[in-house]
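---------- Forwarded message ----------

FYI, see the URB1 C-terminal domain-containing protein record below. Original note from H. follows.
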Amino acid sequence: MKKVSNKNWKNVLRLKQKLIFKLIGKEYAEVTTRILVAKLIVRTIIALRSNDRTDAINRLLSKSTRSILLLAYVFHDLLILEEKVEHEVFISYLQKLTENCSSESIVFDLLRVYSQQNPNETEQIMELLRSETREDGLPIKQTNKLLLMLKLFPDSLSTAETIYKSLTAKAVSFFEATTDAKQNIDEWLLAFEQCTVHLLAQTKSQIDLYDLIRHILKFFSTFTTNAISLLKTLIQFFVSQESKDHKHLAKLFGHFLKHKNFLEQLSSSNRSLLMDTLSLFILHYDANQSSVTIDCSKHFPMLLSIYNPTLSKNDQHTLACMHTYEKQGYSMQSAFVWGEAALKLYSAATDAKSVLLQASKLEQVMNLLDDRMMLKSILFYPVTRRLRNVEASVFEEGDQIYDPAYLIPVFYHSLGPENVVKCQQFVEKNCLAYCLMALSSRCGLLRAVVYNCLARFEQHLVTQRFHCKEQILTMFTLLKQSIKKSNLKLAPIVALFLSKLINLFTHPESKMYRTITRFLLKQPYIDLVHIPLFGELFHSVSSEYKHERGWILNLLKHGIKDSIDYTLCTNAYVFKTLMTFYNCSLCDDTTKMEILNVFHATSKLQDMLMSLLFDYGFLLWLQNLIKTCSSESLKVLSLIIQNIGTRLVSVDNRVQLLEFDCVLMLFIRRLKSEMLISTSIADAVMSTVLKFQEYFKSSKRSLDIQQIKHIIDCSTIAKKTSLLSCFC
């Protein structure tokens, strides 16, 4: 029996080794495929006996001329499992790897693991990365090796600076001699930018970058994203140096503005990067110390013509650039119009005075405002947006809502006592409602400007006549009597309620008009610390009870934006009421959907969601809800589950994790009964599953890939992710 056993083992060993070298002999284009094949090879090697394992690893090293990149994934996993390798042979393999594949992320991971486990070999790795690579044209490989050095050995600054200066000189020579490059310039641009970023954060040495910046500006007739990104980083490095030459800076600024496709590219997708680069020049340009004179005040027509006062990424960067101009003392001298209107205004005017005279009408500004965008801007008002700090951030529906950092100052200046204001138009365009919503802003300075806007508007309103003037004045009186503290921040729910009142005043035919007017006349103030009319409207006994309930739920859905809203909702027992009413026979499908939308809005805020989970048993309520909810509710439910998964992944609470595990399992099973699953639902579930993959692996009720096959088939995330690597 013993002889047969040994014979069988040898046969198995041969088969396994044959399998390993057959897999190694092929090239795999996809990263996910390489990861899976590497895992299979590693598992096969680990299953061998100790001596056979060492033999297999040595044979892999001897075959390292083939599938160099695939072997990097294999050796990375083997080193993590603390398998031994022959250092001399492995170093020679690393030399081939860094020469051919230094741009791949796995190379850095492999070198990091190897240097951590073998600190004595650090000098040899440094020598590999320091060695010069012979290559024609741009030094792409050498740049990638420098990047590896900066990441692995951040203390080796002097060596890195020497190599960086050499690379800069080679790049200048390349751009001087070449007009049409056949090389992969984008790869060099990305690697060199990352090297510059690392050095910018660490070094204080003086590196001459003038020639390189000048040649890059000359070389690219049209800026690519990578080119302008590198240019921005190089200029940031150039101006950060203590001995920067202001004459050179002015010349570069002139070259940048005179670039032949500069104006066309301001309207492209690279506008945000161009605006940041322009801001850097403006911030450090000194006309007194420069030989080149640039009239920066004439740039405003160009900037305003491409600007739209939304919270999209490009528009935020453009506003930040204009803000930099003004901080440096260059006056805008405009009526805050934008787009084509600004271009026409400046082209028609002959001097600054005529610009101001033509621009003094608020009517021009209001004609540029889109009614739908104004309504959306009120519902999705960004309470975190600040007035002076105009750095770009990501906002919900950002490209569809107006920017209060631009619009509120426009209203303030346009409502001045010297201007003629059509109050009715200001109300009907929802400008007044927008100002009231802005009272919920976290920025104290912005709120102060808004209060001044309201005071100026009231002065104009008193002298005019139109149909809802008295109602607005009454609301102003009640609001003034309710505010006990200067520059008071209103809860977003209350601010939205006031904004909706203005809309109702202009539509007296609305079903809510009589209810709201009765509420305003009932007492000499507005209660700002409670949700107005929640009990009366939600439990309405009038014939229009469905409309009134839907109105207050819509207010909650769009009004919950801040922690103060949670306090108001808790005091009014909002969450308990909604959770109880959802399962009531009187709750129709429309109301159920609105209730879920309220909880979806709540789940976006970390503190409020945690309170729902720990104080209200929200996950247990969801478990019961999933079994009986309608198909139309699944999309909102998937978004709620995704929000919970995003915020719960950092919470170390076993009970909540188990409950969330049950919710996710139930939802996955519920989706099996659906004939068709939308892509958005599938993506929301898949992103949550991938975040919790490690938890599922260790769980006794771990997910099987077959359980989510019906979701994988509909998900776009699944196509980009190696699911086998998550579940095997």
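H. also flagged this: The two ends are 35 Å apart (CA to CA).
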